[in-house]
Design goal:
The chain is mainly α. The protein is built from eight helices and three strands.
Length: 205
């Protein structure tokens, strides 16, 4: 059974950057629904015993188009939100460490540069979607944007997301209204680069 990531902080802990009502709605309702529906579809497709990454990477093996689309959307929503919420913290490390710090400097030149690219990708995503920092197996880093609940795994890139920035309106509209850029700026105030660094090291081995 696929489970929602357990929060390491209280619903109001990310104030004022991300407000309690948004957290209660986003995590408690939207993410809970993605998780429930994905479990139902995965059971129906006979893939509930597989890791979510494997399910999303092999969608082309699901013959039924409706079921395949459901797994992509609901499974993507489940995976993306687990990543998103797991990287937030009330007391975040503001800089990456170890191998990720070195890779960011090598690829982008600085932390500020990668934050700018992620912010631009998120702000420029038309409609609902995400921006991601991902790595391939060799440790190369990529900044991309994906629509809806897609991600680099379901898009067949072979890359592993290590950071996900949610720009669906439900992630920010209760507090920031239509000011997506303001929300994006505040997201980085509660992003824990320690967790992102750990995700990177896990992905590259």
């Amino acid at each position: 059974m696929f489970e929602q990531v357990k929060l390491s902080y209280e619903m109001n802990a990310l104030e004022p950057h991300i407000d309690q009502l948004t957290m209660e709605t986003h995590y408690g309702k939207h993410h809970a629904t993605y998780t429930k529906t994905f479990n139902e579809l995965a059971q129906k497709a006979g893939v509930s015993d597989r890791p979510v990454e494997e399910v999303l990477a092999s969608l082309d093996k699901v013959a039924d188009e409706t079921l395949r689309k459901g797994l992509r959307n609901q499974g993507g929503g489940y995976y993306n939100h687990n990543l998103y919420f797991s990287t937030l913290s009330e007391a975040p490390d503001k800089v990456p460490s170890g191998k990720l710090a070195e890779a960011i400097d090598k690829t982008f030149g600085s932390l500020d540069a990668v934050i700018e690219l992620l912010s631009k990708a998120a702000a420029g995503q038309f409609g609902s979607g995400w921006s991601f920092l991902s790595t391939d197996k060799e440790g190369n880093l990529f900044v991309t944007a994906s629509p809806n609940q897609d991600n680099p795994i379901s898009e067949g890139t072979g890359r592993t997301p290590i950071l996900a920035l949610d720009v669906w309106e439900h992630a920010y509209y209760l507090k920031y209204k239509n000011l997506r850029a303001d929300y994006i700026k505040e997201f980085f105030e509660v992003l824990d680069w320690k967790v992102v660094s750990e995700n990177y090291e896990k992905a590259v081995g």
